[in-house]
């Protein structure tokens, strides 16, 4: 098991948690999310980060199990 692969999956899970639950520390107080929401709007920002999170989790799991890491 590679520590980097585990970190990628954990980051993706954190992003999924933030997008689905929308806690204040992630959705309202994060500068990154505030800028994204201001530029794209709430719905497009949610879709963007959902796709990003799914890519992170998918790549991390692929790297952990299928690639032989």
Secondary-structure blueprint of this entry?
Layout: H1 3-21, H2 24-27, H3 31-40, H4 42-66
Helix pairs in contact: 1-4, 3-4
Q: Summary?
A:
The chain is an all-alpha fold and 69 residues long. The chain has helices spanning 3-21, 24-27, 31-40, 42-66.
Average of per-residue pLDDT values:
90
Q: Tell me about the largest β-sheet.
A: none
Give the helix proportion (percent range): over 70%
Poorly predicted residue ranges: none
Anisotropy-based shape? elongated
Strand composition percent: under 5%
Question: Helix tally?
Answer: 4
How many whole angstroms does the radius of gyration measure?
Answer: 13 Å
Structural class: mainly alpha
* Number of E-type strands: 0
The separation of the N and C termini measures 6 Å
Order of helices and strands, N to C?
HHHH
Task: Explain what this protein looks like in three dimensions.
The longest helix has 25 residues, at 42-66. With 69 residues, the chain is mainly α. It has helices at residues 3-21, 24-27, 31-40, 42-66. 84% of the residues lie in helices and 0% in strands. The N and C termini lie close together (6 Å).
């Amino acid at each position: 098991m590679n520590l980097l692969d585990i970190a990628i999956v954990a980051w993706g899970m954190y992003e999924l948690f933030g997008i689905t639950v929308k806690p204040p520390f992630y959705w309202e107080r994060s500068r990154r999310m505030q800028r994204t929401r201001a530029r794209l709007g709430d719905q497009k920002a949610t879709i963007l980060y959902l796709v990003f999170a799914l890519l992170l989790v998918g790549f991390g799991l692929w790297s952990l199990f299928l690639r032989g890491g």
